[in-house]
Amino acid sequence: MEHYSFSGGLEAGFDTERLSLSGDLTGVNSRDLLRWLQTLPAIPSIDLAELDIEDGVAATEAVNAVRLLCSRVARLHIIAAPQVLAHNLYRTGMLANGTIELVDMREDEAFG
User: Fold this and answer.
1) CA-CA distance, 17 to 50, in Å (whole number)?
2) Suppose 58 and one of 11, 25, 47, 69 were both cysteines; which one would form an S-S bond, judging by CB atoms 3.0 to 4.6 Å apart?
3) What does residue 70 show for φ and ψ, rounded to 5 degrees?
4) Model confidence band, residue 105 (pLDDT cutoffs 50, 70, 90)
5) Calpha distance 111→19 (Å, rounded)
6) At what angle are helices 27-37 and 56-70 packed, to 10 degrees?
7) How far apart are CA 68 and CA 32, in angstroms?
8) By three-state DSSP, how is residue 3 classified?
9) Would you tell me the crossing angle of helices 56-70 and 83-91 to the nearest 10 degrees?
10) Whether pLDDT at 94 is above 60
11) What residues form DSSP beta bridges with 78?
């Protein structure tokens, strides 16, 4: 598995089957993450068990990141999505067509 580090303690590990994110996703490093994700090949599964979404900008960029990852695969499996991300995916209608599978969604407290 390859590893990459972002500002603010955000870490990523990936191989051809899974992307894992850990640490704090913020409005600052979320934009760097999105640019970095654009360089990766299609990855069908993302593990967010160790990821915390710190603010509204980061939540928006997380939805944009999922949108990008979904555009590359027939079905994206999101493991342990933070509650704020799952809620925003639902609110934006991204869960309606079945291309995203939420596995073991977390029940976190909202940021703020």
Assistant:
1) 18
2) 25
3) -65, -30
4) confident
5) 23
6) 10
7) 14
8) strand
9) 70
10) yes
11) 46, 102
Measure Cα distances from 34 to 53, 66, 74, 107 in Å. Answer: 14, 9, 20, 24
The tokens for 109 are 């407290």
Residues 37, 47: Cα–Cα separation, whole Å: 14
Beta-carbon contacts of 28 under 8 Å, excluding residues fewer than 6 positions away, are: 7, 8
| 3-class SS letters over 26-79 | CHHHHHHHHHHHCCCCCCCEEEEEEEEECCHHHHHHHHHHHHHHHCCCCCEEEE
Higher pLDDT, 15 or 109: 15
